[in-house]
Amino acid sequence: MKRDLYSSELNLYGEENETTLISANNLAASLRDLHHFEEAKSLLRKTIPVAQNILGEDHALTLMMKQKCAQSLYRDDGATLDDLREAVTTLVEIGRIARRVLGGAHPGTEGIEGDVERSRAALRARETPSGVATRTRAARARPTEEE
Questions:
Q1: pTM exceeds 0.70 for this model
Q2: What domains appear along the chain, each with residue ranges and CATH number?
């Protein structure tokens, strides 16, 4: 149903409309909750630049969209170390903006700060006990100096 609503609003109002962006955000939340992480990320990566352009970097909807994108990265069991690092970086960045714009006690700010901790925990869980990240597929494919 949210997919149909987003599609209808996209056709009716166009992509550069706050109502359409709200529908995109709601659809992305549903996709994330259903563990359709790739689809959620794809939608958000397409609509976040529009939100930034239309609403601004500091707008609450822009922040929420970025938060959902980061959540879709760190909640995915198939996330790479780069995905997890991107999630942490994004959440820290939007956390600073939310604290400045919304205030520290705002539920949105508190939610982002909780996501920062959860994303850092997900990143730590994928690292070795020594704190050195496990080698990614790309790193394993590259020969070392000893080879």
A1: yes
A2: 2-135 (1.25.40.10)
Cα atoms in the 13 Å half-sphere on the side-chain side of 136: 10
Contacts 24+ apart (CB under 8 A), 80-89: 80/136, 81/123, 81/126, 81/127, 81/133, 81/134, 81/136, 82/136, 84/119, 84/122, 84/123, 84/126, 85/123, 87/119, 87/122, 87/123, 88/116, 88/119, 88/120, 88/123
| pLDDT tens digit at each of 147 positions of the chain | 788 999 999 999 999 999 999 999 999 999 999 999 999 999 999 999 999 999 999 999 999 999 999 999 999 999 999 999 999 999 999 999 999 999 999 999 999 999 999 999 999 998 856 545 544 444 444 344 443
